[in-house]
Q: What sequence folds into this?
């Protein structure tokens, strides 16, 4: 009697996955370090736990121009060079890459490309096949959106922390794992987006996906 194989499930189990990854708030801490940086310069802004909106100009109660200036001051600081990986990400990367392929897409500007690459090399053993900087607040980054680039790269899913980005990526047919943060915690996730609380949840998703 011939053995019947479900070729779709077989292919999914055998092939490596193409996993998209955001940077800030997903693989590295960002809000708490920038809050401390600003506080050290006499600028008091809400804490990490009180950063309940992705729009920092709204949280900080300042203009968009002032928000961008503060963020770029942080990019130029030694504190930015000292950013640390989030809990569990190094262990997760060691298990995921290989056998899978990592593709980072970040809103950071291209002026910090080398710093971003150095972070991946130093803490995550360079386990990312490509790193794309979109330059959301300036610079000469890619003119694409996260969603259009995720689709072009044929990503199987994407790990993100900004709800509006997650929705846009999902609209291109790429499933999103939304890493829970104060700025998305109380929001309803749209179709195509799954909430996760840690990199352990991401690892479990990969096992279930296969």
A:
């Amino acid at each position: 009697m011939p053995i019947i194989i479900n070729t779709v499930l077989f292919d999914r189990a055998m092939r490596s996955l193409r996993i998209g990854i955001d940077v800030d708030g997903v693989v590295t801490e960002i809000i708490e370090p920038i809050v401390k940086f600003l506080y050290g310069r006499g600028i008091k802004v809400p804490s990490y736990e009180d950063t309940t909106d992705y729009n920092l100009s709204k949280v900080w109660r300042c203009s968009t121009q002032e928000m961008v200036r503060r963020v770029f001051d942080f990019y130029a600081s030694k504190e930015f060079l000292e950013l640390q990986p989030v809990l569990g990400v190094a262990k997760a990367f060691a298990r995921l890459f290989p056998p899978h392929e990592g593709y980072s897409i970040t809103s950071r500007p291209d002026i910090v490309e080398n710093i971003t690459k150095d972070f991946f090399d130093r803490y995550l053993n360079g386990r990312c096949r490509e790193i794309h900087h979109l330059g959301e607040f300036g610079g000469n980054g890619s003119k694409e959106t996260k969603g259009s680039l995720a689709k072009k790269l044929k990503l199987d899913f994407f790990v993100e922390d900004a709800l509006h980005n997650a929705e846009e990526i999902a609209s291109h047919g790429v499933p999103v794992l939304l890493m829970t943060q104060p700025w998305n915690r109380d929001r309803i996730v749209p179709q195509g987006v799954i909430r996760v609380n840690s990199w352990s949840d991401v690892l479990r998703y990969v096992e279930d996906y296969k």
